[in-house]
Amino acid sequence: MIARMAGENSGRRKFDTSVLREAIAAAVAAHGAGKILPKEMPFKKEQGQRTDLIRVAPGYNSGSIVESTTLPLQAYTLDGLANFLGFIIRSTKRATQSFIAVFGAEELIADKILKESQIKGLSAERLGELVISVANSAMRLRSRRRGWQQKP
Q1: Which residues pair with 89 in a beta bridge?
Q2: Per-residue model confidence (pLDDT) at position 13
């Protein structure tokens, strides 16, 4: 149902990032609640896979999975979620740029780094630029704070 809704809305003449935000939020919440079957959003952890690409629903953040950890049923990847919602590049089976931009915004909003009011009405391209800019600023700020904490 969620995937069908996202697919129907993505076919509109003018792409609306708010529709994709809704679909992402609904899919992540449903996956976290166990309402999406593993076969609907297949996930396979491979040796040497970057664990920072794995998320655990109902959250958006990465980094909580240790390489040797058995994955919880709610584990997902960006590409897996994009595939479930139908926002992949067919030749590569990777998430589209618009999907990555919208997911990045959701991640920053969940971390309280970005506000919904800052992204309202933005195109996918502009949203992607904003997400990159805000994420880079947040990383620089965290680095500075770590540096201040390490000084005697």
Answers
A1: 94
A2: 42
55: nearest Cα among 22, 80, 83: 80
Radius of gyration of the chain (CA): 16
Helix runs in 35-123, H state only: 78-85, 97-110, 116-119
Q: How far is CA 116 from the centre of its chain?
A: 15
Cα(61)–Cα(146) distance, integer angstroms: 20
> Over the range 36-45, which residues count as b (16 or more CB within 10 Å of their CB) and which as e?
beeeebebee
**Residue matched to tokens 């005697």:** 152
Q: Which residues pair with 77 in a beta bridge?
A: 54
| Tokens at 12, concatenated | 């509109």
pTM for this one? 0.79
Q: How far apart are CA 50 and CA 17, in angstroms?
A: 28
pLDDT tens digits, residue range 19-52? 899 999 999 999 999 999 878 887 766 655 566 6
For the chain, the structural domain boundaries read: 2-150
Q: Locate 24 and state its tokens.
A: 């992402």
Tokens of 109: 């909003």
Whether the bond into 38 is cis, omega within 30 of 0: no
